[in-house]
Amino acid sequence: MPGQTTTILFDCDNTLVLSEELAFEACAELANEILEKQGIEDRYTGPSLLKDFVGQNFRGMILNLCKKYNFTISPEDLESYVDRELGKVIETLEKKAQPCPGVMEELDGLQEMKKYKLAVVSSSALSRVQASIKKVGMEKYFRSDWVYSAATSLPKPTSKPDPAVYIYAMEQIGVKPEECVAVEDSRSGATAAMRAKIPLIGYIGPYDEEERKKMIPILRDECGAKYIMKHWSEFPEALKAVAASL
């Protein structure tokens, strides 16, 4: 029925799996190679790249580097860098990825309840998302055809904050925005959910205290999150807050 949550749509990176820092270390190497070839002196570390581009996939990151530093890159070179980055990141994730604290217990509980449809909606390439959730033992919670990627699943690759991947996921699952809840940790992801008109739970678990203070108003005030979680143990309370808002 309208107004009742039937479907939970989870972002992956730093929402389900602690993958962003690992991925951005690999991304920084390639970003610096691009800048060097353009004669640009600035260089990124993994943390500084993460700070500037959290929530975006590598394709979106390169395109935003082009805008920031006012240069262009050919479609062929763009695809080459995207392919190289994906291989580097997957190799790292398969060795080191860990689940976000407390999330496995909540997914266990949701699976036992059999009340909700569960899906993953990510900006990252599908093979990267699959590698992440497989490494941490999460694949049992999600149907393989309900794992979606803005970079891979769509006819035209994109990245959050574009809401296209959320809209596509809802079409495929057969649900409306008011039946869903999205869980996101970044401005770009939360903005995508908001633009898709999906009720939002914000998650700030992976951030340090300084970043948490910055992210709370972004997720709550700018993107309309109904609840901000510091730890996954708060998830049942977050769902109640969403239900009360409908």
Automatic annotation (TrEMBL):
It comes from the Eukaryota. Keywords: Hydrolase. Signal peptide: none annotated. GO terms for molecular function: phosphoglycolate phosphatase activity. One of its GO terms (cellular component) is cytosol. It holds the Pfam family HAD_2. InterPro entries: HAD-like_hydrolase_sf (IPR050155), HAD-like_sf (IPR036412), HAD-SF_hydro_IA (IPR006439), HAD_2 (IPR041492), HAD_sf (IPR023214), PGP-like_dom2 (IPR023198). GO terms for biological process: DNA repair. PANTHER family: PHOSPHOGLYCOLATE PHOSPHATASE. This is Haloacid dehalogenase-like hydrolase.
